[in-house]
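HUMAN: Mind making up another protein with tokenized structure?

ASSISTANT:
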Amino acid sequence: MYLRKVTLILMISMVASFSIRTLGTISPQLFTTSRIIKATGLMNAFFVLSHLLFWLVFYKHYISIEKATLKKKCLLAIIGSFSVATIYLKNLLPVFGINIHFPQVLMNPYVDALVPLMGSAFHLIFFAAYRTSLARRKRCAQQTRIIDHYWDYHFHRSAFDRPAQFYSDRSVSMA
């Protein structure tokens, strides 16, 4: 139930964030007031942090319980979300007049460009592994159904229910 609420919060914040970004693309003159810039920054920060919260709750309530094989891949997604949140919040703090001295590595403009790409790659790795695990489970379920049909056909049906071809094939193969 908690995972559903966090997912809903993530989806609402995602819609709000992308709506604000779209509005800023269509009419950038709306975003000239400092209050609107700060409100937009806070909304986007809420989106980034709710995304990180989603991954943490998803790991705790789903991956660690039901999908032990995906733990490392989900941790990569969490690291990707955390690194993106760190870069975003690092750039947001000066808007509010908060000056924190970050390590020189984080001040490099290439880090600002590469970290979101790495975060996206980590998410892609997780989703590929998750898709593979779902396909494997589906494939096992299909194989189980085939085995069940085979078992039912050969062992659970009475002799009167079997087609005549079943007996003719047996007599031919035995001869």
Helices lie at 2-26, 34-66, 71-92, 109-156, 164-174. Residues 59 and 66 are 10 Å apart (CA to CA). Residues 109-156 form the longest helix (48 residues). Confidence is low (pLDDT under 50) at residues 166-175.
